[in-house]
Amino acid sequence: MIPRRSRAGLFALLLAVSCSSGAPPPTPAPATELGAGVVARAGGLPIRSPTVAGIVEAQRVEPDRARDLAIRDALFAAAALEANLQREPEVAFSASTVLARSLLHEIQHESESRGDVTDDELAKATARHWLDLDRPASFRVVHAVVRFDEKADPARKKQAGDLAEALRKAILAARPDPSVPPVMTDAGIADPLVASFRAAVTSFPSEGLDIVIEELPPIAADSRVVTRDGGNMDEAFSRAAGGLGGRGEVSAPVVSPYGSHVIELLERVPAMVVPADERRRIVREEVIIARQRTSEKELLEKLRSSVQLDPAVDSLLATVPVD
């Protein structure tokens, strides 16, 4: 970023260039006619008190030193104008860069000045960060699915459903006391319900069918996977899992496009909702940036009609050396 002291001088140069059209700098005004907020003039260019204040803040110098630095920049700018340096391509490009950054700064200021986060902005930000700001109640389950192709014939699907029902009975028969909680071990969390579930399923004859066992991350009632990676589960599966009442309850076979499932509930996870005022504070900076980007995009769309490209631009750019 350009230091404020340097920006002050460059802005003075830009203002002079835009008004002079190559003419000599204007005659300095008498000290009694400097104008409101103008603390000095140098080479005909006004030096305003906010400019001096900005130099004080950026350079950590005394006000009189800041004034002298601003005067020096203005004098150099006036001398550059007298030498017609504003016509040099490098100067014109630097000037346009400073103007662009100044405009972006103004857009940022305008975005900040539009006030607090609105209800609509809050809703959109909350939707983007729902896991941290508005996490729904969820449930964790372990399930076994007897796989079949969605286009499988009815007999194959019935066979899978019958096996899933037999698995359910085996799981219930081997299930330990559901009130026994998971424990922490050197290898991680060990849940007796999961261990019993896996043992019951793996020891049961598969009858030539493919059986998959999975311990799933938390799932919300609307089928969202409540993790950073997100995603969605099958609606029928989520509905059945969400309908289980307590830890250790096992579902009847549930059919999805992937096969016939048997689901056991491990845990219900309560919702976590950050109060609206706190959410506004958390997302404010992100919302301001979003406002700024929207304004920049809208302005660019309006301005792009003025862009002209040389028909041979690609061949011209091909000659530019790239390290």
Stated plainly, the CATH topology of the largest domain is called: Chitinase A, domain 3
Whole-number radius of gyration? 35 Å
* Mass-distribution shape: elongated
Q: What is the number of strand segments?
A: 11
Residue runs with pLDDT of under 50 for 5 or more positions: 1-23, 28-32
CATH architecture of the largest domain: Roll
Features:
two-stranded antiparallel sheet, alpha+beta, 2 domains, 323 residues, Chitinase A, domain 3, disordered N terminus, elongated
Question: Could you provide a short overview of the structure?
Answer:
This protein is α+β, with helices and mostly antiparallel strands and 323 residues long. The protein has helices at residues 4-20, 49-59, 63-82, 89-113, 119-128, 130-133, 154-174, 192-202, 235-242, 276-303, 313-318; strands at residues 38-42, 45-48, 134-135, 138-147, 183-185, 188-190, 211-215, 219-220, 254-256, 259-269, 272-273.
Provide a descriptive summary of the structure in words:
With about 325 residues, this protein is of the alpha+beta class. The chain has two domains: about 5-115, no CATH class; about 130-275, Roll (Chitinase A, domain 3). Helices cover about 50% and strands about 15% of the residues. The protein has eleven helices and eleven strands. It has helices spanning about 5-20, 50-60, 65-80, 90-115, 120-130, 130-135, 155-175, 190-200, 235-240, 275-305, 315-320, and strands at about 40, 45-50, 135, 140-145, 185, 190, 210-215, 220, 255, 260-270, 270-275. Strands 4, 7, 8, 9 and 10 form a five-stranded antiparallel beta sheet that branches. A hairpin with a 2-residue loop joins strand 5 and strand 6 (about 190). Helix 1 (about 5-20) packs parallel to helix 3, helix 2 crosses helix 3 and helix 5 (about 120-130) packs across helix 10 (about 275-305). The longest helix has 28 residues, at about 275-305. The radius of gyration is 35 Å and the shape is elongated. The protein starts with a helix and ends in a 5-residue tail after the last helix.
